From TrEMBL:
The keyword Transport applies. It holds the Pfam family BPD_transp_1. The chain crosses the membrane at residues 7-28, 66-86, 98-119, 297-316, 337-358, 395-416. Residues 143-176 are annotated as: Disordered. Keywords: Cell membrane, Membrane, Transmembrane, Transmembrane helix, Transport. Coiled coil: none annotated. It comes from the Bacteria. It is found in: Cell membrane. InterPro entries: MetI-like, MetI-like_sf, UgpAE/MalFG_permease. This is ABC transporter permease. It comes from Streptomyces abyssalis. GO terms for cellular component: plasma membrane.
Length: 425
């Protein structure tokens, strides 16, 4: 090559031209364009960079990128290490590794669509909330008739905290009729017909029912034949601010309270009417970034596992056996031998993931709804929105691109130096 450099140059020329067209020119043009305004006609120097570091949305993107860079490589590498070590001793380890690695075969677009459905707020559609609501309802009782309420100006009225309390006091001489509305007829279709409670000696009786008859033929505050009972409603007798008796309505809507309830006001607690638990707002402003990070880890933990498993296969078994013979337990073997020997592989995984998460765009753009996209914003997404969004300011977009390049360069330099040290060995 020294005697005929033109031969080497002729072989390198196509690659150099391609590299210049696809890498060098875009970088130089981005640096040049970042010094001009939105129209590209006026030179403004570092004005775009000043705006980048003073705009609240872009600063949020910086903060989120920092979270991504710290959390994702650490968690993915830790999970990959755990999976790689544990699957070595599992009989079906290869099958397990295949299952963990399979998400890598899915594109970011497809993964984004999958997790947008997983994180849907409605438990009937979103898998995450369906599981969460199922667990919640296992340990917490749901309300009997969510949304039920008394008619305006009725004897039963709001008394604070979502409770409804009668204005008048109950008496053992006659039944207490507690009429409610606001329950959709389809929800009460399977309920039994309501009955007027009969007086009982020494007890306060009454009926809680849906004061609505199909066709509007019923009379207000009167138990009509076609009206439905509201079963399972808790009724409390309150006297001087203290609960002196409780009861629950039966299938026909009737209830009976002890004699202490005579002269007390009747209260229907808010727990009877609370809306059903609807799960967690995974894509709300608070949890949208952790939720998207979770979907990314689901995809890339398998990548970390495969690389670490390959490095683990090259660990000398004599070292491990010698440590065990010397009395080291499995945790000590893992901490003192396995992890230090795998340090170069772990470094490769961490650096690769750091470079990838700095460029994350697809998942955030697809998963985050428009209402919380600003809270989930990252630099690559902000670059796209600034350059091609409503403002269409390619000067700002180019400045963000240059900053992204500067953020990636140190990681690349560290990786190149590490590779050179490995080749010297």
């Amino acid at each position: 090559m020294r005697s005929r450099p033109w031969i080497a140059f002729s072989f390198l020329l196509p690659a150099m031209l391609l590299l210049s067209a696809l890498v060098v020119y875009p970088i130089l043009y981005s640096v040049f364009r970042s010094t001009f305004d939105a129209s590209g006609s006026s030179f403004i120097g570092l004005g775009n960079y000043v705006e980048v570091f003073t705009d609240d949305e872009i600063l949020t993107a910086f903060k989120n990128n920092l979270i991504w860079v710290i959390v994702v490589p650490s968690v993915c590498t830790a999970l990959g290490l755990i999976f790689a070590v544990l699957t070595e001793r599992v009989r079906w380890g290869t099958a397990f590794k295949l299952i963990i690695f399979m998400p890598m075969a899915i594109s970011m677009l497809a993964a984004g669509i999958i997790f947008r459905l997983v994180y849907e707020q409605d438990p009937q559609q979103g898998v995450a909330n369906a599981v969460w609501v199922g667990v919640h309802d296992t340990f917490a009782e749901s309300s009997a008739w969510p949304g039920a309420r008394p008619r305006p100006n009725a004897d039963l009225a709001k008394s604070g905290g979502g409770d409804f309390t009668t204005k008048s006091t109950a008496s053992a001489s006659g039944p207490a009729n507690l009429a409610l509305v606001g329950v959709p007829p389809k929800d009460a279709a399977g309920a039994a017909p309501a009955k007027t409670a009969q007086p009982k000696p020494g007890q306060v009786t009454g009926t809680v029912w849906l004061d609505f008859a199909p066709g509007g033929a019923g009379k207000p505050d009167v138990v009509d034949k076609k009206e439905k009972a509201l079963a399972g409603i808790k009724v409390e007798a309150v006297k001087d601010g203290k609960v002196v008796g409780t009861a629950e309505t039966g299938k026909d809507g009737t209830f009976s309270l002890p004699s202490k309830a005579d002269g007390a006001k009747l209260r229907l607690p808010a727990s009877n009417f609370a809306e059903p638990y609807n799960g967690i707002d995974w894509l709300g402003s608070t949890l949208v970034t952790p939720s998207i990070i979770g979907s990314y880890i689901w995809m890339w933990a398998g990548f970390a596992m495969v690389l670490i498993a390959a490095g683990l296969a090259g660990v000398p078994r004599e070292l491990l056996e010698a440590a065990r013979v010397d009395g080291a337990n499995e945790w000590q073997v893992f901490r003192k031998i396995t992890v230090p020997v795998l340090a170069p592989v772990l470094g490769v995984v961490v650096v690769t993931l750091m470079i990838n998460v700095l460029k994350i765009f697809d998942l955030v753009y697809i998963i985050a709804p428009s209402a919380s996209q600003s809270e989930a914003n990252v630099l690559a997404l902000q670059l796209y929105l600034s350059s091609f969004g409503a403002g269409s300011n390619q000067g700002i977009g180019s400045a963000i691109a240059v900053i992204l390049l500067l953020l990636v360069l140190p990681v690349m330099v560290v990786n190149i130096r590490r590779l050179r040290r490995e080749t010297r060995r």
